[in-house]
Amino acid sequence: MDIPFKDPPPTEVRNLAGGEYSTIELLRHAAKQAVERKYRDFVIVDVDSHHYENETYREVFKYIESPVIRRAALESAERPGRSNLMNGQVGYQDISGRITRQRGRAREKTEPGEQRDIVMTKRWMDSMGVDYACLFPTPMLFLGLHPQPEIETALAQGYNRWLCEEVLAKEDRLVSMLYLPFNDPEAAYRTVKEFGDKKGVSGFMVTSPRYKPVHDNSYMKTYALLEEMGKPLSFHAAYNWNDQSMALMNRFISVHAVGFMMYNMIHLTNWVINGLPERFPNLKVMWIESGLTWVYSLMQRLDHSYMMRTSDAPALKRKPSEYMREMYYSSQPMEMPDDKSILEATFKMIKADTQLVWSSDYPHWDFDLPSVIYDLPFLNETAKRNILGGTAAKLFGIDPKVVKNIPGDIVAPGSRPLAGVAS
Amino acid sequence: MREFFVAKASELKSGDRRIVTTDRGAEIGVFNHEGAYHAYSNTCLHQGGPACEGLMINRVAEVLGPGKTWEGEVFAEEMHFVCPWHGWEYDLKTGEAVGNRKLKLRNYDVVEHDGSIYVIA
């Protein structure tokens, strides 16, 4: 593979007209950052990244157990762009083509016989300096809004089987928190039972836009099982423009900014106020892709009301913020206020040194590089390394071994002592 | 400071651009827009993306009616270039980030002589 910036000639002039698309070329500045910051010296774990499962629906849907739904799904895969078995959302994350990788990725070459999701994912991981990534789907983030719970369950099971067998079993650098078909609590329970011990399954994930409350009694046995197995439960944010409140907004920017916070605010509020941390004290809970400012706000809102209305939350033995400070939060999209002291206060509030876990969300439109954490002036080196990988490696049970291969880096991976992973 | 060759003038037509890497490794985007040359740092002020390598697109402007009612949107004359990583837009004539014009990419002088274009860095 050509390395664009390594040993460049004294002057190099590139013409940008046309040509193939290359992840490594697009991210060559990310690789430069990774080299300059010496990411080779410590492990980086990305807790939230994506692939586009719709690009391989024909393969994924073969894993659906029900022959009837399998046939319907495979037929749907033959006519993308028209109404089909999958539900969708209005959305234009590519900003009318300004985010060029959304279209360009179709032109990227991989070798015949290679598992394309694995190859494409490892290219951006190496460019950013990521050792291990937790991989999530993309269109299926809206599957919780499917009007037919049995379809959600069938597609989720098929996807989970495909992911375990075709991706996680074959690539040690990829893990996932598997999709939980949450509209059918029994199916959610069965999913944890079936997949909890599979290779690369680091936990389970609930897509946040959905309308059955997390404190519903039907979920308790699933939470108990997760706690017993030591598998984290995560809530991955998304939006629902058809929600009555969201439908008041006329722009994607608005729906994205509010929608990606709203459902996680609601679920976390229910989770804490109904005392689920008291019922499942050892269950690790993670909130994904809502940024950080909402946590800072919600902690203060709930604490303020709780002291006046303890009778409304009789299960609690501590203030809501104290439970929240024991949960995990993914960093992306990390808000960057002009006044960094505000960000520093947020980090302090959520106990970032041990509870914040970096995520890229790549290849989605608002991805973050590791440098959003590494370049913060108020973090010491240990805190940076914990947030970028140490904490997540422990949470996921990953051996924190550096395995990345940063394009253009001068030192071969694996030849140095590891540092910076908190015990 | 010295001159770095960009292209033959005949090869850099309006709408074309080149990325020049200097001997110190700095990347500079050189644009020809309607006969005028513009050159900026190719490192986005946001997260360091290749700022000069994305879409070139006119500013989107809102159209209001006489009673300040919203009447639609148009592409205005102002030309932007867009960082392909996250969509930060820059004014081609000034290098300003259009979302916050206090932020500006470093700009470079461009000269033309003997039928060739050079950027000074």
Quaternary structure: heterodimer
What letter string, H or E per element, gives the SSE order of chain A? Answer: EHHEHHHHEHEHEHEHHEHHEHHEHH
Q: Which radius of gyration of chain A do the C-alpha atoms yield?
A: 21 Å
Give the biggest beta sheet of chain B: 6 strands, antiparallel
End-to-end gap of chain A: 37 Å
Radius of gyration of chain B: 16 Å
Q: Pick out the low-confidence regions of chain B.
A: none
Count every beta strand of chain B, where a strand is a DSSP E run of 2 or more residues. Answer: 9
Q: Can you describe what's shown?
A:
The complex is a heterodimer of chains A (423) and B (121). Chain A has 17 helices and nine strands. Chain A has 423 residues and is α/β, with parallel strands linked by helices. In chain A, β4 (174-179), α8 (185-195) and β5 form a beta-alpha-beta unit. The longest helix of chain A has 22 residues, at 252-273. Chain A is globular, with a radius of gyration of 21 Å. The two termini of chain A are 37 Å apart. Chain B is built from no helices and nine strands. The radius of gyration of chain B is 16 Å and the shape is globular. The A-B interface holds A 5, 8-17, 26, 28-30, 33, 95-101, 365-369, 371-372 and B 4-7, 16-23, 25, 43, 47-50, 53-55, 57, 82, 84-87, 89.
Structural descriptors:
heterodimer; A: 423 residues; alpha/beta; 8-stranded parallel β-sheet; globular; disordered N terminus; B: 121 residues; 3-stranded antiparallel β-sheet
Describe the structure concisely.
With 423 residues, chain A is of the alpha/beta class.
Strand-helix topology:
The complex is a heterodimer of chains A (423) and B (121).
Chain A (H helix, E strand, L loop, with lengths): L11 E4 L7 H4 L1 H9 L8 E6 L6 H4 L6 H11 L23 H4 L11 H13 L3 E5 L12 H20 L5 E6 L5 H11 L5 E7 L12 H10 L3 E4 L15 H22 L2 H4 L5 E4 L4 H14 L13 H5 L3 E3 L9 H10 L2 H4 E2 L13 H4 L6 H16 L27
Parallel strand pairs in A: 2-3, 3-4, 4-5, 5-6, 6-7, 7-8, 8-9
Chain B lengths: L2 E6 L8 E5 L5 E7 L2 E6 L14 E9 L5 E13 L6 E3 L15 E7 L2 E5 L1
Antiparallel strand pairs in B: 1-9, 2-3, 3-4, 4-8, 5-6, 6-7, 8-9
